[in-house]
Specification:
The protein is an alpha+beta fold. The chain is 42% helix and 16% strand. The structure holds flavin mononucleotide (FMN).
Length: 361
């Protein structure tokens, strides 16, 4: 069996046997969730690895990726039509999102009897390639978490995480030279919260930031199901409302004080904050930071620990050096800021199907 048939043979067999497996349009949010987050099926071959990749964390859930399947390589290219030029002018988050997607492939590949090796092409526009080699089929310890992981933007229960679990998630998040810097001391968490609040205030006062954010909010189920991307009201812990009503209520619901109070409650109910710092500040470093964060999130999920990002201080360029200085990072760029703790889950976010993100090779 050559490499092409390793990747695609099983897909063809499966498709021939199961013509009904093609996804139909879901009619409720729950149906969409069921379809998007159904268990991985190794019999579907490499396309199932692409599906695993699309389930990764990604900025604003823009799903800024295109996948190309060739003989023994999956290439992830940035989808520049889905970039967020205001919040992410240098595409840092976009490439971190590609890193998150690549990490899910790394974790899922052994299920298909494949070993994944990630390389980054930093030449414009940049891409991530994942070379797949045959190995004995096995189940990677973190693969099961791919379907359960979510960014849980809710209040947690305030309980501490044991030092053993802290060590486990810290080790998972220290991948490829990326430092996973964990803060659990309350006074230091309060100091980071101050930066989050400063950043949030600056962002909410910026009409361009707000316009970009609102363009990715999916205010109700029917829009969320139709678009299968963006920030669904439900998965952000908000009620789903008709779009016209939601837009009118926005100025009352999305206030600076309301949001800042929410972030304070979120941080104070968390067990700790993890900061991811890549050794290099370029596309390869941003992909590495995304991979490390995704692995941290998968490991946390396995331990029943939730997480959510608090990136305002690394997104607002005037605050980034200040928080780097506070954390003692010197000239290194803090890539991602994540709170973690235990608590209930929220409804999962949605994803576009694999057919919408694969390009011909
Ligand atoms: C690079 C990156 C930056 C992100 N920044 C934020 C953020 O600042 N605030 C936030 O609430 N979520 C942030 N997220 C989380 C995404 O919004 C989330 O992954 C996406 O909506 C999909 O939801 P899910 O992870 O629950 O599947 C970020 C994710 C990534 C990968």
């Amino acid at each position: 069996m050559n490499r092409r048939s390793v990747l695609f043979g099983t897909v063809a067999m499966y498709a021939a046997r199961m013509p009904m497996a093609r996804a139909s349009q879901p009619s409720t949010y729950e149906e969409a969730v069921h379809l998007v987050w159904r268990p991985l099926d190794p019999a579907r071959g490499a396309r199932e690895l692409v599906r695993a990749a699309t389930l990764a964390a990604n900025s604003h859930n823009t799903q800024p990726w295109r996948f190309i399947l060739s003989d023994n390589v999956i290439t992830i290219r940035p989808d520049l039509a889905r970039r967020c030029p205001v919040v992410d002018p240098d595409d840092h988050h976009l490439f971190a999102s590609l890193g998150c997607a690549a990490e899910n492939i790394v974790q899922a590949a052994p299920m298909l009897g494949l070993n994944a090796n990630v390389a980054v092409d930093t030449a414009n526009p940049g891409s991530v390639s994942i070379a797949l080699d045959r190995t004995a089929p096995s189940r990677h310890a973190l693969a099961d978490a791919i379907m359960q992981r979510q960014c849980t933007r809710a209040k947690y229960d305030g309980r501490a995480v044991s030092s053993e679990d802290l060590r486990t998630v810290e080790t998972a998040g220290a991948l490829g030279g990326v430092e996973c810097f964990i803060v659990t001391e309350r006074s230091r968490m309060e100091a980071i919260l101050d930066y989050v609040i400063q950043g949030n205030t600056m962002q909410m006062r910026d009409p361009a930031f707000m316009a970009e954010l609102i363009s990715w909010i999916r205010f109700n189920d029917s829009v969320a199901i139709e678009r299968l991307d963006g920030l669904a009201a439900r998965s952000s812990g908000n009620p789903a409302l008709p779009a016209w009503l939601a837009r009118r209520l926005l100025k009352f619901a999305l206030t600076e004080k309301g949001e800042n109070d929410k972030y304070a409650e979120h941080v104070r109910s968390s067990a700790g904050i993890a900061v991811f710092i890549s050794p290099r500040n370029d596309k390869a470093g941003w992909v590495a930071a995304g991979r490390a964060y995704q692995r941290f999130a998968l490991q946390a999920t396995m331990l029943g620990i939730r997480n959510a990002l608090l990136n305002q201080p690394v997104e607002v360029s005037s605050l980034r050096p200040q928080i780097a200085d506070y954390l003692g990072l010197g000239v290194r760029r803090p890539d991602l800021i994540v709170r973690f703790g235990r608590g209930a889950s929220l409804p999962p976010s949605l994803r576009r199907p694999v057919t919408a993100v694969i390009d011909a090779s």
